[in-house]
Design goal:
The protein is α/β, with parallel strands linked by helices. The chain folds into two domains: 168 residues, 3-Layer(aba) Sandwich (Rossmann fold); 94 residues, 2-Layer Sandwich (Alpha-Beta Plaits). The protein has twelve helices and seven strands. Helix 2 packs parallel to helix 3.
């Protein structure tokens, strides 16, 4: 496909998304401040007007402080009202047990709490940032969205993650090249109980990596073992003596007993790799 043909294809998808949003009237966007939900918020605001769009962020221990700050800043940049809902997934034993469908319980909690809010505001629909790439991955949260009648205008219009990054750059959104940032609970190995204390360890460990210049990274939590992922081309850099010793000291101070480097490098959703071995629940 030529560049011109590709651009025309992306434009056609955006037009379909805009048409879908127009049919919804007033919407609440399940807003994390990530690439996808920021794009959906921006398009909704442009199409429907900022007064007809509400950004809603679920707040709990699984939301990193840096992502909280990003969500606030981006909603203000787009010019829409932004509200927080204090979600209570940490009171749900199903969520705390951390099965492979943990995200289902988290999204169920969020969408359940959004229902009375949108009813009180006269909002007619909830939309999320799901794109077509998500449909081919293991995403239990999508089932929760379906059960609650949540719309996915980007996916329904055929937009991929790459399309959304292209359009975000064109719109001047600072999230165009933002690394993916799923909730902190996604770093804990399936079957190990989720606790706020573990999530704080993960958040602080990833902050160490970012301070050392590794903006795209994950610290996967395996009890007392931290499994670090950075892009493959930066593995040698991270293993250099000065950085390695700093990481070892600082992550041990956080409570990790073993600090390891994943030689396969950074990859989104690597915890889902165990599902291929029959651990899906």
């Amino acid at each position: 496909m030529t560049n011109a043909a590709h651009d025309a294809s992306v434009d056609a998808k955006l037009a379909r998304m805009q048409d879908l949003l127009r049919t919804l009237g007033r919407v609440a966007v399940a807003f994390s401040g990530g690439v996808d939900s920021t794009f959906v918020l921006k398009v909704a605001a442009d199409v429907l007007g900022t007064s007809n769009v509400l950004a809603v962020t679920g707040r709990s221990s699984s939301l990193a402080d840096v992502e909280d700050a990003d969500a606030r800043r981006l909603a203000a940049l787009i010019g829409v009202e932004h509200v927080y809902l204090d979600t209570q997934e940490f009171n749900d034993p199903n969520y705390l047990a951390n099965p492979t469908n943990r995200c289902y319980y988290c999204k169920t909690e969020l969408y359940s709490r959004m229902a009375p809010l949108i009813a009180s505001r006269g909002i007619t629909a909830v939309v999320n940032g799901t794109n077509t790439d998500d449909l081919g991955d293991f995403r239990p949260g999508l089932a929760a969205g379906k059960e609650h009648g949540v719309h996915s205008p980007a996916a329904d219009a055929g937009l991929t993650k790459a399309d959304i990054r292209i359009l975000s750059a064109r719109m001047g959104l600072p999230t165009a090249d933002k690394p993916a940032a799923p909730c902190l609970s996604s770093r804990v190995q399936y079957g190990e109980a989720i606790t706020p204390e573990k999530l704080k360890m993960i958040e602080q460990a990833e902050a160490v990596l970012r301070r050392l210049g590794f903006g795209e990274c994950r610290v996967r939590h395996h009890d007392k073992l931290a499994r670090i992922e950075v892009p493959v081309h930066r593995i040698a850099e991270l293993a250099a003596d000065s950085i390695r010793s700093t990481l070892d000291a600082e992550l041990r101070a956080l409570g990790y007993q073993y600090i390891t480097l994943d030689l396969r490098g950074f990859r989104s959703g690597s915890m889902n790799e165990v599902i291929a071995f029959g651990k899906r629940q």
